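Entry 14. Two folds queued back to back today. First construct below, sequence then structure tokens.
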Amino acid sequence: MWRDLFYLSTDNFMENYMTEGNAAKSITYFSIPLVLSSVFQQLYNLVDSIIVGNYVGEDALAAVGASYSITMVFISIAIGSGIGCAVVISQYYGAKMIHKMKTSIYTSIIAIAILSVFLACIGWIMSDFLLQIMKTPDNIFYDALSYLKIYFLGLTFMFLYNIITSIFNALGESKIPLYFLIFSSFLNILLDLIFVVKLQYGVVGVAIATLIAQGISAFLSITYLLFNLKKFKTEDEVAIDLGLNNKSAKVKTNKKENINKRKDSKDIKLFDFAILKNMNKIAIPSIFQQSFVYISIFLVQIIVNTFGSSIIAGYTIATKIDSITMIPLASFGNAVGTFTAQNIGAKKIERVKEGLKSSLIIITLMSLAIFAVLFIFGQNIIELFLNKSQSEDAIDFALKYLRIVSGFYIVKGFMNAYTGVLKGAGDIGVFVLSTMLNFLVRLIIVYVFANTIGVSVIYYGVPIGWFVGLLIGYIRYKSEKWKFKSIVK
């Protein structure tokens, strides 16, 4: 009864629901802003590096780079926390339990704010120590330390911005985070030009620009979210607007009487420990998984470094191109996760299966198209980074890497889709297992066979890891045990 009344509320963003209409269209429309956001983020990072490298110098770029692996640890915590919050919020949204959805959102923001302040204090205190154990060279140590300390001052802004983005995505609104990302990126570049080029603050200017841009973006995005949350009305609020009594469903003219008859179970809370516990069940394994991914990439790089500068250059170019060309596949995996979460909440299991089938078809077509482009134009793209006369070995390695790895993009896309279902359903244990084994198998292959097979082990290990991840995700999906992992009971 009350779910039907909920649909009568014209103030709600019903167009963002992924529980109705054509499944393929819902997932595709949701994915497009995700793709654009990722591409824009890559381009922004490139421009940011160009400004630092050209107007401050090599040491400044190295100082920022030296801090990168440390900041990625904290970013992995932010991403993992966002996954945990998004799954819970999305399932409540799909179930149209708006009071629980709002409580989840408020709980997420408060918990993330507290966590980020704690981590910022730890990071600030340990900055010097962290750079020392990483054996940061003396000539860039002071700049790296200055950058890192200012970075930790703005850590709360980064965490809040990330969680707000996750919340919007959970509500099926992927366009709003794109708009804020575009604003934040242009603002950051403008501030870089002011603090770095005009005022010549060097690395400190880069850090200040990032802090200010993230701070303003976090404030605006939270303000926008909280303002629009008012448009999502609970079942009781819809009933009151329609003049209905909660018990008899008869028309009432006195709305105050209706308000007094609300049940405590429908109250919106600013913080709920039970909901936070559910979020942590997903967030903590996700943080662990994200951290493992970054550690694995670092360990693979160690082996790559043993093959010499040409292979390092080729690997760097190939992985940069690879990270961009795989964005559509990653975005579809995230879209499948949100689609699944909303429909799990709405108890529409068959629609989840319909969405997965549609996604697999689209992923197949995208994978073939990307492979064709890289196979035909791969060398032309690589030579945008490096001229063949400079290093033929680097270009040859990069080309082989791209052609072989992109030939298995369909496997990567399918793995993302199946694990996206698991993530959206709240079956986080198997989702994490699939991702970790994917990277673990790749690590084992690289470390065991690097001396016997040679440099080719680097690109052959990638699709083998994907096959393992896909196999685990597929087996779990076919078992249908993921259907019983819903947060919404």
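Second construct, same run, same settings:
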Amino acid sequence: MHDTAHAPRRFETPFTHEAASSGACLWRGAVLAAALMLGMAGAPAFARGPEAIADLASEVMDAVVNISAAETETVTKRGEVPPAIPGSPFGDLFDEFRKRRNEGGPRPRGAESAGSGFVIDESGIVVTNNHVIGEANDITVVFTDGAKRKAEVVGRDDKLDLAVLRVKTDKPLKAVKFGNSESLRIGDWVVAIGNPFGLGGSVTAGIVSAHSRNIEQGPYDDYIQTDAAINRGNSGGPLFNLKGEVIGINTAILSPSGGSVGIGFAVPAELAAPTVAQLREFGETRRGWLGVRIQPVDEDTAEALGLGGQDGALVASIDGKGPAANADIKTGDVIVQIDGKRVKEPRDLSRTVAAMPVGKRVDVTLLRDGKERKASVTLGRLEDGEKAQAQAAGETSKARSGRTLGLRLSEIDDELRQQYALAEDIKGVVVVEVEPDSPAADKRIEPGDVITEVGKSPVTAPAEVERRLEALRKEGRRSALLLVTGRDGDVRFVAIRLEE
């Protein structure tokens, strides 16, 4: 669903290649006849765009840039090549090879990417898509006059696919500003400028085809859809209104062929502008966080909860350390309004909260047992919540798994039970990895085997295995007796020598 994706399929023309010439002649004749009839009837033959587009393009063109991004690495010397033997044939060619071989330096690694961007501050601040620069460490911004400047990354946001760059300049650059995307109407004219297929400074025009599009590319999807031609290389470029204001950042296309078919998507300025401001100020995003997991309200859920409709966001769970845990919000509540803004579906709540400042106290309207209630929440920071969740998940994973005796062990969960076809009634710890040449490998223990006892004591967690092994060491035992159930259901005792 983006401009670098493979096309799902290609639509073919009904005309065969051989019949194209005669078919074209018939087509042109039909079009001419239709045009003459329309002309005689006094109806317009073709629709025309606004004449202001040429003036607009001339005014903003210099603020639109091309962006080239590549990964580079420093090639280290892999051993000096000795000089050629004096008087040997082809000595000069050998010396040239020796020079290239012995000299290290930055060399490109991997394919380069190319895209578009635009200047929003005359001091050298450039906005583009995050996927344009990827993991590149060599980014070049090319201006309309051909000038090339190296850029550094100020900040990036993968949720909205935005990146902010900075270039050094000895003179003020032409810059453009964000406009009001909320006032856009379907049918309004828009202009896209960018670098499609490497053709810099390309201008296309069209209309707003739709707004608030969810193309399932991120948690805050609210794209502007336009039929202005957007192709590969347009990513990161601006979408202008007729005032010359940036009302969107061209990000994705829907295409069966890989080229423009008149369905392009842009991140609206109302989402992009505050995110860009945070990246400029902090080098990272600082989004609001409510601390709830939400889901849509379907017809059956609405009936079960006694709701009059399907609007709102159903609270599926609450983060125990999140802001909502300290408020009168419970699992099963349906949030229908926050800070005075209506919540029609879950993404409305996600976008609204994310756009709010951290620490803001907001009023929440929710439905519980068919009755409307009010709650008040002080928003936390989303990024802090994500870090805490990742850390907790890591600690849980660490507690559920462990490594000992050359074995990596894990508690038995549904996924591992299915992976190794373990019986439903088996209890113990499952072997998920065996180190080569380890004592366990010598005893033919394999991934999928289940250790049910260590030293005649039942075990159900890796930590219990380690505690039992440590107790055996303290008793002076030199080996541990394990009761192992194989994947074939065969049960056997295995004695493994304890590490010194």
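Quick look at the second one. The two ends are 57 Å apart (CA to CA). The chain has a mean pLDDT of 82.
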